[in-house]
Amino acid sequence: MIKSEDQKIAIKCLEVKQPIGEFYIGVMKHEDLVKISYADIRRLEVGDEKREVEVYSGIQRELSKNRVKELGKYVNLVDATFPSSVILHINEKDVEYDSKTNTMYLPFRDNVAKVLDGQHRIAGLEDFEGKPDDFDVNVTIFIEMELEDQAIVFATINKTQTKVNKSLVADLFAFAKFRSPQKTCHNIVRALNQKEGSPFKDKIKILGTADDKEKETITQATFSEKLIDYLSKDPMDDRNTYKKGKIPDKFSGTELEKRPLRNLFINERDADIAKIIWEFFDAVQERWPDAWWKVESEMILNKSTGFLALMRFFRDAYVSSDRIGEIVEKTFYKTILAKSSLKDSDFNRDNFLPGSGGQSKLYNKLIEECL
């Protein structure tokens, strides 16, 4: 039943006392939270208006449309969760609290709760397709807090948050029980780093290992993210499909050429995927052994600049074999790479600047000379 704006929202709350003062922790239905909060996408897109707490604290953070879109998809996954609390500020005049029943009553209307943290999660929840009772959100509610204190809370949260290491995220998929592009790529990267004779032996920075750090030039996250791109156009959706007990779709035509390892992944031929990557980079390390194996600060082939350019070129070379879905031997790639005029000493920072510019320059030169 749809609430009218003269109705109240009842929230079970616990009162918390900390040095900053008293506040409440409770649980709200996602649709109620979306309704009463006013740091949402509609408000922030109107003119140049900024939330007063952001102006006060010197932080002016725009709502990211890409992040909202990402979270809008995420909330509909079978294992979606927002375990951390959304933090709200509400004026005293809008609050009724019954200490005997630990129940807070709020008006069901717009612009009741100012969002101090969680604006992207709330905006993402607007796209939730499940039942209203299927997604509750834990909230922290401050009442009649001074603007200065609101700014302190906002600034403390947003200035002290540390981004999670991408390699750690890749590593954690090893614990997943269900199949996913992330888990497959994690396993392949680790295998290529460990196997004797591999062109990546001990070259990948794997979290939690104490190998020869001087030889490690490519991060686990960099490798996994690029490899995933050849298996899936939406890794989280594929993972969600497997968790539902189903199998994602295979690709064909130009879609398969763009992600040529897709159908091998769907057919659970992970060892073949590893071998396909092995064969190409084995040809690379034989063509330019010094540039690939020597670790020197000015050299780029065995670092992210060179690796990402080579991974782009790999797709074109593999597709050109007309053997998508098969293991193409390194002899095929050696013939292609032999056409390049590049010498080991050419793979330096002067010729190929670190970053996307250097990657594109190297990739384009390989395409021009070899294919």
Q: Which stretches are poorly predicted, pLDDT < 50 over at least 5 residues?
A: 40-50, 55-60
By secondary-structure content and strand pairing, the structural class works out as alpha+beta
Strand adjacency order, main sheet: 4-5-1-2-7-3-6
**Quantity of strands, as a count:** 9
**SSE order:** EEHHHHEEEEHEHHHEEHHHHHHHHH
- Name the beta content range: 5-15%
**How helix-rich are the residues, as a percent range?**
40-55%
Distance between the termini: 63 Å
- What count of domains describes the coordinates? 2
Mean pLDDT score: 86
Overall geometry: elongated
Explained architecture:
By secondary structure, this protein is α+β, with helices and mostly antiparallel strands. It has two domains: 8-160, no CATH class; 166-370, no CATH class. It is built from 17 helices and nine strands. The strands form two sheets. A seven-stranded mixed β-sheet has the order 4-5-1-2-7-3-6. Strands 8-9 form a two-stranded parallel ribbon. A hairpin with a 4-residue loop joins strand 4 (96-98) and strand 5 (103-107). Mean pLDDT is 86; it is low at 40-50 and 55-60.
